[in-house]
Write a structure and sequence with these properties.
The complex is a heterodimer of chains A (557) and B (167). Chain A has 13 helices and 23 strands. By secondary structure, chain A is of the alpha+beta class. Chain A has two domains: 269 residues, FAD/NAD(P)-binding domain, CATH 3.50.50.60; 177 residues, 2-Layer Sandwich (Cholesterol Oxidase, domain 2), CATH 3.30.410. The chains are: A alpha+beta (557), B mainly alpha (167).
Chain lengths: 557, 167
């Protein structure tokens, strides 16, 4: 019997498995997807960016999305809409495919309610832990998993003990123009911490600036995926059994403990049971919740770990949106067109000036962070995006002219805003017996609605960002802020807290109801902060893993 | 917007293997029928003497067939591709292929005025762009001519197989 079974091999599953294996425990990772090795990852746009090859076919496995249309809740299966909520079902999960712009959460993100008060219609609570408790684990991720960057002190930059040990990845000359424009506007540009190595480290080579990063696996090992940084070293201990193509349908439990996982081999369809002393669910927020619902039994009729009735509630995405503008030769002063068009180098710029807003006219509220980058370099998608003029498709010779101009004479710079997706009663996961996947299990049903405050904050920040692009001389500037869910940034649904009546997990992400059940992914988060979740997911999973080691030691004695 | 809304005849889901084989056969036959229409539309949208390679020179029609026949392609959209071609020819009373360039332009712009036609034309254009700008391993974009036209190149490493299939 394994000491621990970890369900999912992404950032959190990898961190837990790594820690337990290093401590000498026998671990099995159950990963639904297959292993794609470093040398197998190519930059095949059709396969990685345009088809569901590393995520399930939506006719086989899907979600049901409930949105409000004309005042009524309308449920649409994703095989109808084509809106996939799967994120990288391969060994290492979606950490393989990230663009790696990561940040620590700010200390005030851990006490949002105390600091900013309640907002009507939002379920804001303070976290049961503080930044200080997570800080050593943020440090650990920076060193062990690898985050490159350059520390520039800023009032909203979380405190840190020392500078990054790896310098930032190389930058495109456009940063000269960007920094100058920001400074002219009284805005402080910061260097983006990136989960990508700028220098070789152990078995991992440095970034080779392929020009195709987000949505693709890394072929040098520079990207700090769970697979490169945690799974391979965990396998090297001899304590890890990696079971890929293994999908967990449900967990079997008594009143007091989980006994085994019911799994199905996704290639052969063969089912079996896998037993362990403890179980760690790390399948990404909405899927972890679904698994716990689908594991309901007579002892836990509302689903595992759900005596509070809070399972699935307060699902989070990321608020905000994006915008962009075009840089053309005639507006470039500090740099040449050739420098701008150099491919592969990063923009690496973050603005935190509006993370918290306290303004005599605008008011006092929690804001968000902004990342600046070039438009994704995918060729097909850039071509497809540029085939409409005044509502009509452009074709014939006009299309050829338009594309050549678009690709050769300008480059688009883009910003992405991350602000809190406020937890609310109309954003949650449930399951519905009338929608089942090909394995016969009910699929996750996601009711999704954002809070109006999220839009207000997003628009506030977008206006500021448009000013930066204008100052840079960009043309055709636009931005889009919406309440649409960011399906690749999911958290919440298994809130952690000290009160078993109001939370699913305790402060160590252990189920209040079942001591040998842990949930390690982002579902523990009661509020999401205003940065991408990745660094916090890694850090918290290492914290949880330390507690699991202590738990297993205690069980042994 | 639900994608099924664009289908006039909703395809049957959950087929048994024997029915599936018959379906595949039927698809091939139906494709052969609609192929000239689809090709004519591609050639009109991506003509010779443009800044980008023509659909004809890149064998975009073969790419389109192989792409929509592959299991990774959405089966409802596959049905829609054929259905939209049939609908175009029906609107033109079977005369689309024999039309002059100017008449084809008029016909396609009129088709674009309908929501159904607009979505279909947009699909054909996307599939043709996928041909021109995918890695050459997919059979089009020969000698990287599509990429060269835009001075934009796929990253390294390049794929050694189609659709992440094993070597």
């Amino acid at each position: 019997m394994y000491d621990a079974v970890v369900i999912g091999s992404g950032a959190s599953g990898g961190a837990v498995a790594y820690t337990l294996c290093k401590a000498g425990y026998k671990v099995a990772i159950l990963e639904k997807g297959r292993l794609i090795r470093r040398e197998e990852f190519s930059k095949d746009e059709l396969s990685y960016a345009r088809r569901d090859l590393i995520t399930p076919n939506l006719f086989d496995e899907y979600h049901v999305i409930e949105e409000r249309v004309d005042g009524k809740w309308v449920a649409t299966p994703t095989y109808e809409s084509g809106w996939s909520f799967w994120n990288g079902n391969i060994v290492g999960g979606s950490s393989n495919l990230m663009s790696g712009m990561v940040h620590r959460m700010h200390p005030d993100d851990f006490r949002l309610k105390s600091k900013y008060g309640q907002i009507e219609g939002a379920n804001i609570v303070d976290w049961p832990i503080s930044y200080e408790e997570l800080e050593p684990y943020y440090d650990l991720v920076e060193e062990l998993v690898g985050v490159s960057g350059k520390y520039i002190p800023h009032q909203y930059e979380p405190p840190r003990r020392k500078d990054f040990s790896q310098p930032p990845t190389k930058e495109n000359a456009v940063v000269k123009l960007f920094d100058k424009s920001c400074k002219a506007l009284g805005i402080t540009p910061l260097v983006t911490p990136r989960a990508i190595l700028s220098q070789e480290k152990g078995h991992r080579k440095a970034c080779y600036y392929s020009n195709f990063c987000g949505s693709y696996g890394c072929s040098s090992g520079a990207k700090s995926s769970s697979r490169e940084t945690l799974i391979y070293p965990a396998l090297a201990t001899g304590n890890l059994t990696l079971l890929s193509n293994t999908h967990v349908k449900s967990l079997h439990s008594s009143k007091e403990e989980v006994k085994y996982a019911n799994v199905v081999n996704t290639l052969t369809g063969k089912e079996k049971k896998i037993a362990a002393r403890l179980f760690v669910v790390a399948a990404q927020a909405h899927e972890s919740v679904r698994l716990l619902f689908n594991s309901a039994n007579r002892h836990h009729p509302q689903g595992l770990a759900n005596s509070s009735g809070q399972l699935g509630k307060n699902l989070l995405f990321s608020g905000g949106g994006s915008g962009q503008g075009e840089l053309h030769e005639e507006s470039l002063k500090e740099i040449t067109l050739d420098e701008l068009m150099t491919t592969g180098l990063f923009v690496n710029r973050t603005i935190l000036d509006w993370y918290f807003v306290d303004h005599w006219w605008e008011g006092r509220f929690k804001g968000g962070s902004v990342e600046f980058m070039f438009e994704h370099q995918n060729i097909i998608s850039r071509a497809v995006k540029n085939n409409v003029e005044e509502g009509k498709l452009v074709w014939g010779e006009a299309l050829g002219k338009r594309l050549a101009k678009r690709f050769k004479e300008q480059k688009s710079i883009r910003f992405e805003i991350f602000n809190d997706w406020l937890p609310n009663d109309n954003c949650f996961v449930s399951v519905d017996e009338s929608y089942k996947d090909k394995y016969g299990m009910p699929v996750g049903k996601l009711r999704i609605e954002g809070h109006p405050q999220d839009i207000k904050v997003g628009k506030y920040i977008a206006k500021k960002c448009e000013k930066i692009l204008k100052k840079m001389g960009a043309k055709n500037i636009y931005s889009s802020i919406s309440a649409s869910a960011s399906q690749n940034l999911v958290a919440g649904g298994c809130r952690f807290g000290n009160d078993p009546k109001r939370s699913v997990l305790n402060k160590y992400c252990q189920a209040h109801d079942i001591p040998n059940l842990f949930v390690a992914d982002a579902s523990f988060m009661p509020t999401g902060g205003s940065v991408a979740y990745t660094w916090t997911i890694y850090a918290n999973a290492f914290r949880v893993a330390d507690h699991i080691v202590a738990y297993l030691k205690k069980e042994n004695t | 917007m639900k994608r099924r809304d664009f289908l006039i005849f909703v395809s049957v889901t959950g087929l048994s293997p024997s029915i599936q084989a018959r379906e595949d056969n039927r698809f091939k036959k139906e494709f052969a029928k609609q192929k000239p229409i689809i090709k004519a539309v591609q050639d009109h949208m991506f003509p010779k003497q443009s800044n980008i390679p023509s659909a004809h020179s890149m064998q975009a029609i073969e790419f389109l067939l192989q792409t929509i026949a592959h299991k990774s392609y959405d089966k409802d959209i596959r049905t829609f591709i054929l259905e939209g071609a049939r609908e175009l020819n029906r609107r033109e009373k079977g005369k689309f292929l024999s039309m002059s360039k100017e008449k084809k332009e008029k016909s396609l712009r009129a088709y674009e005025e309908t929501e159904y036609g607009r979505v279909w034309l947009s699909r054909i254009m996307t599939l043709t762009m996928e041909a021109l700008f995918s890695d050459p391993i997919y059979g089009s974009n020969m000698q990287e001519k599509g990429w060269r036209a835009l001075d934009a190149y796929g990253g390294y490493p390049r794929p050694k197989t189609r659709y992440l299939e094993d070597v």
